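testing teh design pipeline on a random one, pls ignore if ur not involved
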């Protein structure tokens, strides 16, 4: 977070992901709720809200296959790449 404070023109893209279980609509909402939870933590660390973009990809971009519970767990995640100016 210190790096973000030192680079005020940078932005965070917080993206929530889910596994394949559930409907697309449910997964999109769940992914958004995951991203919002992380956004809340980032705001508490002092990063301004206008520097944060929150989105959901639901089940559409899996990090791993869906065969095993272990892989499904890997798909339930939040990613936070930093967008440089």
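output:
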């Amino acid at each position: 977070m210190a790096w973000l404070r030192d680079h005020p023109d940078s932005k965070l893209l917080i993206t929530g992901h889910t596994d394949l279980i559930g409907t697309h609509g449910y997964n999109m909402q769940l992914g958004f709720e995951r991203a919002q939870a992380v956004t809340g933590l980032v705001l508490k660390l002092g990063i301004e809200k206008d520097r944060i973009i929150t989105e959901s990809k639901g089940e559409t971009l899996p990090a791993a296959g869906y065969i095993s519970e272990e892989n499904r767990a890997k798909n339930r995640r939040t990613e936070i790449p930093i967008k440089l100016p």
